Amino acid sequence: MISAVSPQVWIVTALVLLGIIALDLIVIARRQRTVTIKDATLWVIGYVTLAAVFAVGLYVFNPGPAGSEFVAGYVTEYSLSIDNLFVFVIIMARFAVPPLAQDKVLYIGIVVSLILRAVFIAAGAAAIAAASWVFYILGAFLIYTAIRLAIEGENDESDFKENAVLRFLRRVLPFSSEYDGGRLVTTVRGRRLLTPMVIVIAAIGMANVIFALDSIPAIFGLTQDAYIIFTANALALMGLRQLYFLIGGLLERIVYLNVGLSVILGFIGLKLIIEALHGSHIDDIGFVHLPHIGIAVSLGFILATLLVTTIVSLLKTGYDRRRQET
Predict the structure, then answer these.
(1) Residue 64 — left, alpha, or beta (φ > 0 → left; ψ -120 to 50 → alpha)?
(2) How far apart are CA 154 and CA 256, in angstroms?
(3) What's the domain range around 234?
(4) Is the model more confident about 245 or about 263?
(5) Is residue 2 part of a domain?
(6) How many CB atoms lie within 10 A of CB 229?
(7) 142-193: pLDDT as tens digits
(8) Do the beta carbons of residue 53 and residue 279 sit within 8 Å?
(9) Cβ atoms within 10 A of the Cβ of 311, count?
(10) Taking a C-beta distance cutoff of 8 angstroms, is the pair 285, 110 a contact?
């Protein structure tokens, strides 16, 4: 597996992440009220600052492309993860999760998906190290995903359906019909039952894993360093929960988010295919020269796409609102 750091750094990083996860859990356990905008804002700023400090550390202690690759990977993973929030909103509404329990549901679901993503990353890194032609497959898959995302448009409630795994859990496990605060287990007439929280956590975790099928190939198009890929995914996911509470309402105004994300996925897919062709010593196709797309160009393109997407979306929603008022 390709990695720019030593096993000792991996261990230290894992311990720090576990410490942050434990701290988060303590905060959730002690909180007796719903998450406020102020709470969410402070935590989002904290996680983004943590990612920025980590990036600076890479620039200082690991000279080379690692820092830029992490920034590009983090921005890509965070922006793609925003699309998850639409599904989270749908799941919370579909299962009528109590406001006080939503933070805990998201926390456990995201931690589970982080563990599963680590498995995906290890498998992807091993596959790429074993065969460079995997780039062709990943590139083609990202371009297909980009086209599908652009055509399907926004997520809505009809996009979420209970899959076979959730239906299986309902059949084999004893569930209560009602929530019991934020508890996973409750007692009904002397019988120990799981609350619907367990089903919601499973739904959140699987939604995150499904989205990983798009986002992990995308970050492999920016770097093949497993350490960079894992830390970018971890820090993006850890900040996603609080972002849910912060911009839940704003999501409805970013009407062209899927278009912007599809452009990013298509760009990275094309980049992967070009890199695969370069690896096969193909630098030209007919009269067309295949350029080398560096990490600085990739980061600039991603940031510019997100900026344009946000500005155009806000202009569109503002125009529509003014039309309705008149």
Answers:
(1) left
(2) 8
(3) 7-325
(4) 263
(5) no
(6) 28
(7) 888 788 878 766 555 545 566 677 788 888 888 888 888 778 888 888 888 8
(8) no
(9) 11
(10) no
Confidence (pLDDT) at 321: 80
3-class DSSP assignment, residue 95 = coil
Of the candidates 252, 201, 214, 203, the residue with the CA atom closest to the CA atom of residue 79:
214
Distances in whole angstroms, Cα of residue 269 to Cα of each of 141, 142, 218, 303:
7, 5, 7, 17
What span, in angstroms and rounded, lies between the C-alpha atoms of 288 and 262?
24
Q: How far is the C-alpha of 240 from the C-alpha of 20, rounded, in Å?
A: 14
Query: In this structure, is residue 111 part of a structural domain?
Result: yes
- Give the total number of structural domains in the chain: 1
Neighbours of 252 (CB within 10 A): 13
Domain annotation covers residue 241: yes
Tokens in use for 187?
Answer: 């007692």
pLDDT at 239: 79
Q: What SS3 class is residue 102?
A: helix
Other C-beta atoms closer than 10 Å to the C-beta of 104 total 22
Q: What are the DSSP calls for 22-90, one per residue?
A: HHHHHHHHH--SPPPHHHHHHHHHHHHHHHHHHHHHHHHHS-SSHHHHHHHHHHHHHHHHHHHHHHHHH
**Residue 1 forms part of a structural domain:** no
pLDDT tens track for 259-285: 888 888 888 888 888 887 877 778 888
DSSP state letter for 254: -
The pLDDT of residue 313 is above 80: yes
Task: Specify whether the CB–CB gap between 76 and 219 falls below 8 A.
Answer: yes
* Residues 202/206/207/208 CA torsion (nearest 10 deg): 110
Element (H, E) at 301: helix 295-325
User: Could you give the CA distance from residue 119 to residue 127 in angstroms, rounded to a whole number?
Assistant: 12
Query: For residue range 67-115, what is the model confidence (pLDDT) as tens digits?
Result: 888 998 898 888 877 766 767 777 877 788 887 788 788 888 778 778 8
Read off the pLDDT band of 196 (50, 70, 90): confident
